[in-house]
Specification:
heterodimer, A: 269 residues, Rossmann fold, 13% strand, globular, B: mainly alpha, 2 domains, elongated
Chain lengths: 269, 150
């Protein structure tokens, strides 16, 4: 991604060290959400390293390559396990936890569909206690599309005693609604569901991630979300058009307001 | 120094002639701070004060000042000095009122702190977390995105 981590301030310099873990079913916009969290933190001068445990889509690895075209390592490029075999994934995660304690750089971890890995990791490492001992703020973000099965899966995760951390965010991703659906019609069954009401009352924060209709254009041209605001050109040295800039700026501003309203801004890296 | 009522010991000062006012006014205005302090501390009486004026050669309509004549003048002086100082303060507060070369070396702009309410509001932490409000908010947001009238 064009917004790299070079030269940014340490995530741990001010004592703030975050581990954000994305869980939930695949294709619910979790990688995009983590990408936004990484870009936001770097734009604000904090270092974040993406951890890509979703080897099927490899979104974070593509957005934040670990090496440049000459094979030279890129600082805080995405890290991923050698294979999606459980021992490899667990070894990789343990190594990243160790590195995080050493370098005090925040991490975002994409475990798209890797819930079993996470459950074992939580159980084997006692992740919550590990994070507490090493002053790491652990946040779990569960992404949902409008599909009720996404929601049921999220509720199963939240019901698991191994899963629940102190900070959990349910992200309702508007980008996941299908053509022809209205936003309200798509999400009403979830919003009215008694389990949704119960988990929000229980302290799980809710977040609504609006769709950015020009997302694909940004990706195609290699723009970071904040690049278009700062006037940074794309790969062909062309700047974003005013409409592209305006749409992205409005989307980011809306998201900041949503962070503030849901009181989760401090939970992000 | 402990002043007694019959030996006020005001230093002589160069007096300014104020339009529409007599010498008593000029003298009281020149010694305003000291007179105000000693009157407030009840260290001096008006007969002693007018005797001091007379010692400085001050007259009112050609006659030595009297307490009866000086007291109302003093009220006028206090009022005028208060107005003048307020006006001076306002002028100094106006940006650009003081030449840069006259600004003290150790001057620093006044730091304005946001009110706790405003700061909390910006951070989204103005209120304790209210789950019911959160539910209402997301339902409202989703409804608006779906074009539903609230």
């Amino acid at each position: 991604m064009s917004t790299n981590g070079d030269g940014a301030g340490s995530g741990g310099e001010n004592g703030k060290l975050d581990l954000v873990i994305r869980e939930g079913r695949g294709r619910t916009g979790g990688s995009t959400g983590l990408d936004l969290a990484v870009q936001r933190a770097r734009h604000q001068g904090r270092r974040v390293k993406p951890l890509d445990g979703d080897l099927r889509s490899r979104t974070l690895s593509l957005l934040y390559p670990a090496t440049d075209q000459c094979g030279q390592p890129i600082q805080h490029g995405a890290s991923s396990p050698a294979t999606d075999e459980l021992p490899d994934v667990k070894a990789w995660m343990s190594g990243e936890h160790d590195s995080m304690v050493e370098d005090r750089v925040s991490r975002v971890l994409d475990l798209g569909g890797g819930d079993r890995v996470m459950q074992e990791n939580v159980r084997d490492l006692a992740l919550k206690e590990f994070c507490r001992d090493f002053r790491i703020s652990l946040t779990t973000a569960i992404f949902l599309g409008p599909d009720l099965e996404d929601f049921r899966h999220a509720i199963r995760l939240l019901s698991s005693s191994e899963f629940r951390g102190e900070r959990t965010i349910l992200v309702l991703n508007e980008g996941g609604i299908r053509h022809g659906q209205t936003t309200a019609g798509a999400f009403d069954p979830i919003l009215q569901h008694p389990d949704f009401v119960a988990v929000v009352k229980d302290g799980v924060r809710r977040l609504f991630l609006r769709r950015l209709t020009c997302m694909s254009v940004l990706r195609e041209r290699g723009f970071g979300f904040y690049d278009v605001l700062t006037g940074r050109p794309d790969r062909t040295d062309a700047k974003a058009s005013p409409t592209l800039s305006h749409m992205t700026k409005t989307w980011l501003e809306t998201f900041e307001r949503e962070f503030a309203t849901a009181q989760v801004a401090d939970w992000l890296p | 120094m402990n002043h007694s009522w019959n030996s006020p010991f005001f230093r002589k000062k160069r007096l300014i002639a104020y339009s529409g006012h007599d010498q008593i006014y000029s003298w009281l205005r020149a010694h305003h701070d000291e007179v105000a302090a000693r009157v407030a501390a009840e260290e001096i009486t008006w007969p002693a004060l007018t005797a001091e004026m007379a010692r400085h050669g001050i007259t009112g309509r050609g006659e030595p000042p009297t307490a009866k004549a000086a007291a109302p003048v003093w009220r006028r002086v206090r009022h005028d000095v208060r107005d003048k100082r307020a006006a001076d303060q306002a002028a100094r507060s106006r940006p650009g009122a003081i030449y840069p070369s006259r600004i003290p070396r150790d001057w620093r702009p006044q730091e304005v702190q946001p009110s706790p309410k405003a700061a909390a509001g910006e951070a989204g932490e103005a209120k304790p977390y209210d789950p019911m409000e959160q539910l209402a908010h997301i339902r409202r947001t989703v409804g608006e995105r779906g074009g539903r009238k609230q």
